[in-house]
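In line with agreed milestones, work has continued on tokenised descriptions of protein folds. One protein thus recorded appears below exactly as we store it:

>
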Amino acid sequence: MKASLLVPTLLATAGALSIVISTSPKTELSLRIAKSKDRASTSIRLSEIGLDSSIDFEKFRTKQIFYGASIGFPSLLLFIFLGISPLSALLIASFISVIVFVAIDRDLTQKVKKQRMMIDSEFPAVIEMYSLALSAGETPLVAMERISNSAKGSLAKEFASVVAQVKSGKAFHLALDEMGRGIESLLIRKFIDSLIIATLRGAPLTEVLQRHAQEAREAQRNRVMGAAAKAEISMMVPVVFLILPISILFALWPSLANLNLIAGV
């Protein structure tokens, strides 16, 4: 009886809420999303993967709420029909919705980490191309535009953004500084700072770029060595817990079989 009354109660509650709020549900949802406490941190992560507008944040948060509700509400009905008490079913369904909400947020974090690794891996090659273009006599802006047109990747898109800002009237060093602040990478930030200082003071850029290219190669080598060390440890797990016990069992089995025969005699 309680289960049969739950669905009408939920529908009545939704109807009452729609009457109480002064605006439409869609507008109310947009207002609640706009007032999210983690809006700044989430927007920063979204901007790192190219979603830097307020509409993108609203779409991301709406996606979290929609998937959480679309999985949580059917789970609530399923648990009630299975005979679980409404309160327990509501708690379990809420927990499932929270898990879905957090899983989507963690997926965004993983995309941001992948984007940062991709930019760091592209950095040495792009800097070497930039150094060669400057050595050929091109200006820093023209060399950056050439790389943005010829290369593909996240760093090339950042160069294209800098070129577009400069062409729209922004100072070159200010556009570079904005690029450095937008990318969470220590190597790129150091490169941008050195490039800005060398540009403003008129220092030779080729030596600065060659030094940063060498540092980037060393950092990339260290990352590869660290990943290889982690992979080596991961490969030891099946060897220690699966292959080694089986090998010991095969080695000891004839002796154990002989001992059983002797004991039987």
Summary: The chain has a mean pLDDT of 77. Residues 205-264 form the longest helix (60 residues). The two ends are 70 Å apart (CA to CA). Residues 23 and 29 are 10 Å apart (CA to CA).
